[in-house]
Structures are given as C-alpha cells and as structure tokens.
Amino acid sequence: MHTDLVAALDIGGTKIAGALVDRDGTLVVRAQRPTPARESGERVMEAVNGVLAELAASPRWGEATAVGIGSAGPVDAAGGTVSPVNVPGWRGFPLVERVGDATGGLPVTLVGDGVAITAAEHWLGAARGHDNALCMVVSTGVGGGLVLGGALHPGPSGNAGHIGHISVDLDGDPCPCGARGCVERIASGPNIARRALENGWRPGPDGDASAVAVAAAARAGDPVAVASFERAAQALAAGIAATATLVDVDIAVIGGGVAGAGDLLFAPLRSALRRYATLSFVQQLTVAPAVMGNDAGLVGAAAAALATRTGAGIPARAH
Amino acid sequence: MHTDLVAALDIGGTKIAGALVDRDGTLVVRAQRPTPARESGERVMEAVNGVLAELAASPRWGEATAVGIGSAGPVDAAGGTVSPVNVPGWRGFPLVERVGDATGGLPVTLVGDGVAITAAEHWLGAARGHDNALCMVVSTGVGGGLVLGGALHPGPSGNAGHIGHISVDLDGDPCPCGARGCVERIASGPNIARRALENGWRPGPDGDASAVAVAAAARAGDPVAVASFERAAQALAAGIAATATLVDVDIAVIGGGVAGAGDLLFAPLRSALRRYATLSFVQQLTVAPAVMGNDAGLVGAAAAALATRTGAGIPARAH
C-alpha cells in the first residue's frame, strides 16, 4: 500500500495548473495561475513557482515524493527543457532543473502534454486495460501519445505520439510547422472552421465562426458544414490507421473540443477508418471518446511520474 | 559465454531459406528450397520441413535451442499463424505449431519479414547502437520494422513497422491493400517503373521496363525517370518523418533493390526529409543504406528468437 503523493503540473499557453495527486488519481489539493505567455521566461517561471508555493502551503505537501510535468510542446525530456510554441519566452528553458530546485530536490519527470493525457486515459480512462493505445486531443491543435506493450511510451524526447504533425496529404496545404498536409492542418477546430468558410458556410447572427458553430450548422443539415467535419474525420482516420499500422495499437481514444461534436465526428471517422485501416492486424482497431476531461493533464502528469519511478508502466499495473 | 545456436527460417513468396545461426550472427549451416507458392498449404509446409530436415542433418543441430521465423506477412504472432499475401495456400496457417512439432518442441518465435530485417540491422548492421530506429526494405513492396527503447518492437501481432501501408496521400491512387496513397503505392520498384511509363519514359532496346532500367535512364539524365525517383523519395520521406514524429526514432535504415539506386534515391530523400521532419525532436533524423544484404532475413529471425528468449532486446545487448 502506497500512501505517497505526486505533485503534478499541467503547463499550457493559457494556464498553469498544479495539484497533489494520490495513488488513486484523486486531486487532493489544486492550484492554478494564468500563463503570462507573452512575457519573459522568468515571468512565466514565477507563475510556476506561484503554483508550487500554493501546493507547498498544503499540510499534505510533505507526502509528495516526486513531481510530474506535462507541458505544451515540444519538450526535450532528455535535456529537461521545454520550448512551447505558444510561450515564446521559453526556448530550451531548463524547466526540470528549475522545478527540482523549487521543490527541494524532488525527482522531476517531464513529458509532452499529449503524453500526459495518454497516461491519464490509460490509468483511469477510456484506454484502461489496453496494452497498446493511441490517445489524442483534437482541439485548437492536434496532439497525442502512445501506450505500447502496457507502458506509456514517451520516447527519448518525451514527444512520441505527436500525430498532429504527420503528413497524410504530402502535396497538401502548407502547415505552420513547415510540412504539408499534416493531420492538424486538416482536422483541428480552427481548420474545420476555415474550410467551412472557404467553401461558403457563413456564421449566424451571433458572428460565431468557430468549429462549435460549424458543428451546430452541420447538425442543422448544412452540407458544407457536414463536409468540413467529414474531411477532418478522413484525415484523422488516415493518421490513426497509419499509427496502428506502424505500432499495432488496438484503440484510439479521442478527446478535446472537436471530439465534443460527438457523432458528427465519430460516425464519419469510423467509416473512414474502415477504408484506411485495411491490413488484417489493424482491422479490429476501434475509436472511443476520451473520458478524463479537464483534469487529464494533471492526472496524467502524476501517472507519468509514477511510471518513471516504478519503471513498470502505468501505476495501476504496478500495484 | 553462450555457445548455443538458433535455427532460423526466412519464408518468402520465392524461397524458403533456413540456417543454424550462432551467437555472433554467423550462419554455420544453410539450406534452401523454392516456395511452391501456388500449391496447397501442405505442399508449402513440406518445403519448410525439407529445409528443417536438411538443417537437422547437420552434426550441430543438437546445439539448437530455439527457432526464429521471419515470414512474409501479414503474420499473427499472438496466434502463431501466417497469411502471406503471395502464398494463397496459407491463410491463418499454424506455422508456429507445425515448426514446433517438426523440431521436437523447440520454442518458436514468429515475426514479420520487415521485423526480421530490422532485428538484423540493429544487431549487426546500420542500426547498431541506435536505441530507436526504423528499418525498411524498398523493393517489389515496402516493408519495415521498429527498434524502440533499445529493443525490437514487433508489436502484439508481430507486424509493427509496416510503413509500406501507411497513407501519405489520403486522396491518392487506390492501393491493392484497399486504402489510398500508401507509401508502397508510390515508392515501390514496380510503382517507380509504372509512373515513369505513364509519364512518357520508354524502355531501351532490351525491353527492360523495371525500376532498375528507370534508374539507369535517370543516371543518363532522363527527366521523367529522375522525377519518378524523386516522387518515390518524397513519399518515403513523408512516411519516415511520420514514423519519427510518432515514435521518436533517430535513424531510418533502407535496404532492398530500390535502395540500390543509391544517391538517385538518397539525395532527394534527404532533401525531402528536411521538408517533412520539421518538429525540433525529429530534425536530427538521418537515413542510411542497409548493410546486411541477402542474409538479413535469416540473421534477423535468429536475433528475434534470441531477443524473445532473453527478454532483453537484441542479443548484442544481452551479452
């Protein structure tokens, strides 16, 4: 019976969340600050320190035996640094060392945010019991992570599973990453909205031109809106099928705002998956909605830290 | 010091090769039969038994402690069966059980042929020393395998790394597998030749319309032939970049007849890789020609068996 806690940090371009997480995945103490994303690297670190100080003020802080960090990427787990696209003040920022210093030398595990949500879904969510799984977030961007052979697979860099930036359309539209036809360039929320607008869809009186509004239009029968979701689903299917063909996962768990569109996304996705996942060993591949919600990043950061410490995959398997 | 041997089988649509392989990867005894690919499953098994009988006639057979099989795919490692596309008599054929019976109950490890060549290149070839690698064969088809975290990664089915059938062109040409725009549909030898012919290249007086002839024409400056190799290189680059982005490999080793074209393939491939492998953690990705040659399948089948027995990745790491 383990009674220790893990301090978890979930670092994104909008907020820095922290928690003390117990061995059941329960968040027993929480703290949060906005990310001063346009300010200097030191100012961003001050916000992290503020979150950690708030956690350290808890009477249970003394039970914390490790820190897990899930950060917007890319990260460099081997070097202990982060360079989040949306936090320009942090380029090669030595986050692991700084958090170690701030917590009196606790061991620190760093993974990308896609890897963190994967750890959460595998520990307690929709990928539980699956030894080989892809978990994704389809939202403003498209991220992901992998479970292979029963264990979280962050890869040496901590970024493995970065499905948003694999090309499924090698002659396709340029992606901000520099490549063409990336899954994110076709399937993210902003790109679903962009494509609908380019093809003639117009927002209603409230002026909402987001993917949420496109989803509402699609539900009301607008064919351009429906087609934009279908195209996103096709790109996701090609990317998921590629992943399964490469590493033999049997489930893809999908969360994030775009997944919130429900059957509008999942029905054409399942249909397209039949067309792209053709080899015998991937034909049983299934997709499922994520279940861990907004706390996935924190729960997953804790899970990643526990997995690293035990060397035995997700904590549920180490009990 | 280990002195035992492994019996290795390399099963393809043309030939069934066998060997006794020592712990240094040396083939100490060899045997080979043509594959009666159009005959019944039992006739094909008779050829396998013939190869095994020839090995068993060696005075060193008694030292064999395991059997490794690399087979044309798809395979089902969990079920112990094979269904090679080019051997229609074998559909769900229980090869592991049959080879176990034929060898007096030796433990049998089954992997796909792409996984086998990967095991060989990692053990003794161009991927040696790389803990995370993709190895490929680009020939009549396109196959591959993965090394992750220092160990061969066959996946639960034994087919992981099947890069030939990931789609890099989701609206592209139909592939015989049922999907569209697969790497193999663009980059295999027959497709390099097909594309050159479709775009106006014509074979010389000898009538040779193979990728080898296209390569000769490209070296002589034929722009259509050059373009066909460049397109193959682009598809390979997109597929390799996708693999690195998903599982964080730092090298792609490429063998097979098309790789024999040398710089005609590798120069545009390296150039295209810069365009598709854009994220920070994959920018150091390199490509290298395979070095293990025709024995890669046998050496790799032995390596896979040793890796399974020691549970410690490739045998070189277990010494």
UniProtKB/TrEMBL annotation, chains A, B:
SUPFAM superfamilies: Actin-like ATPase domain (SSF53067). Gene3D superfamilies: 3.30.420.40. InterPro entries: ATPase_NBD, ROK, ROK_cs. Coiled coil: none annotated. Belongs to the ROK (NagC/XylR) family. This is ROK family protein. It comes from Streptomyces castrisilvae. The lineage of its organism: Bacteria, Bacillati, Actinomycetota, Actinomycetes, Kitasatosporales.
